[in-house]
Design brief:
mainly alpha
């Protein structure tokens, strides 16, 4: 008899289902995975080291580029870590704006995950549906920050500026005639809050559409039910957080267990799974989108009724407004010092975590009293999830590896840093 030996295959790094530059070395027995060895570091950009070489306020834009699908949530943790060290608290309105955009970001992340996960395991249409709604929310990002992805909108002491009173309008072009433009601008006649309210009215129906396509679809269930099962005890031991942990049935959400900003004032539910397989994690994320929609609506109501400052009036930390800067020598000096040297943060160390769409995203920040961090360490949720890859795919087929990568919602910017 011929001796049949296991063989090794490279999965990635150039692979359409690798969600970045993941390289898996798979030991296969025929079509069955015997062992999976993830190799990382192909995207290493030295974010932590770079942040240690420049003033605090110049690294906010780097945070967006970590998990480049959950931009403002990364900024949130970093900015809150600086505020904790300095002992400052942003105005209430700024906190509501931050929470609203954190939930918008959660929906953006889950839509991207749903589209890519669907595409990976054979559902083409849901990808196009999900990107339709992403487009609307990207416009909200663009309205407040000028950028569609890397916003750099959160700042120590509040947010960059208040919400715009009017939305940008589409104009007639060779692609759109007047009738089409009027149709596109229909929900852009009011402020950003009116535009977002209109979005939240229709979004639950959109989530129903995705569910109609997938939830009871037998091919979807064959690809996800019973795949990548992780027990609640094991999920805790492996350091899972976010939907990966809640999918295994453990109700752990930092917005509830270690509340920050204005989350204690908001009403929302935490969905949990029961089996801990890919299908449960899918259901958890779908329900999270509905809950985020609820939170956004509550924030919009509060913001409409409560005008006020969105930035602290402490010019050692926050810039003076443009008018004052061009008129007043003192303000000009503050502006110049702030954007060249930054500010000195008191000595100490702090760990600040947020409930990021993928799990617990934490920033460990150590300061020696200078104007730049002495140490910065990022706790990326995807890193812990990826380290469980071997355990989750062992004994499954090669095609299930793709389903497990999808369910982990991996983005390599934060894993390799």
């Amino acid at each position: 008899m011929a001796e049949i030996r296991n063989y090794t295959v490279n999965f990635g790094p150039q692979h359409p289902a690798a969600h970045g530059v993941l390289r898996l070395i798979l030991e296969m027995d025929g079509e069955t995975v015997v062992r999976a060895d993830p190799h990382i570091g192909l995207l290493h950009r030295a974010t932590e080291k770079l942040a240690e070489s420049k003033p605090f306020n110049q690294s906010i834009g780097y945070m967006d580029r970590l998990d480049y699908v959950s931009m403002m949530c990364n900024e949130h943790a970093y900015v809150m870590a600086i505020e904790k060290l300095m002992g400052i608290k942003p105005p209430k309105r700024a906190q509501y704006i931050r929470v609203m955009f954190a939930e918008i970001t959660r929906i953006l992340n889950h839509l991207m995950w749903l589209g890519a996960h669907g595409l990976d395991i054979g559902a083409m249409t849901v990808f196009l549906y999900a990107f339709r709604e992403r487009e609307s929310l990207m416009d909200a990002y663009e309205a407040v920050s000028g950028a569609r992805m890397h916003a750099t909108y959160y700042r120590p002491g509040g947010v960059y500026r208040d919400l715009p009173e009017k939305m940008p309008q589409y104009k007639v072009s060779k692609f759109s005639n007047q009738k089409k433009v009027d149709e596109l601008n229909q929900n852009r006649q009011g402020s950003l809050l009116d535009y977002l309210w209109d979005f939240t009215e229709s979004f639950p129906d959109r989530v129903d559409e995705y569910e109609t396509l997938l939830t009871d679809n037998r091919i979807w269930k064959q690809r996800t039910v019973g795949v990548g099962v992780v027990s609640p005890e094991r999920a805790l031991q492996l350091g899972f957080t976010g939907p990966m942990l809640r999918g295994s049935g453990i109700e752990w959400d930092l917005r509830r267990k270690q509340p920050y900003e204005v989350y204690p004032e908001l009403d929302f539910d935490i969905p949990i799974g029961s089996k801990g397989d890919c299908y449960d994690r899918y259901l958890v994320r779908m329900e999270e989108m509905r809950q985020s929609n609820r939170i956004i609506r509550q924030c919009i109501k509060w913001l409409k009724e409560n005008p006020g400052p969105v930035m602290l009036d402490n010019h050692k930390v926050t810039p003076p407004n443009r008018e004052a800067m061009k008129d007043d020598m003192e303000a000009l000096i503050h502006h110049f010092k702030l954007f060249t040297e930054g500010y000195c943060v008191p000595e100490g160390e702090v760990y600040q975590a947020v409930e990021h769409p993928k799990g617990e995203f934490g920033i460990y920040l150590a300061s020696d009293g200078a104007n730049k961090p002495y140490r910065l360490k990022i706790r990326a949720p995807g890193f812990a999830h990826l380290s469980a890859m071997n355990e989750m795919v062992k004994g499954h087929m090669l095609a299930d590896v793709v389903a497990v990568i999808g369910t982990q919602d991996i983005v390599f910017g934060e894993i390799d840093r």
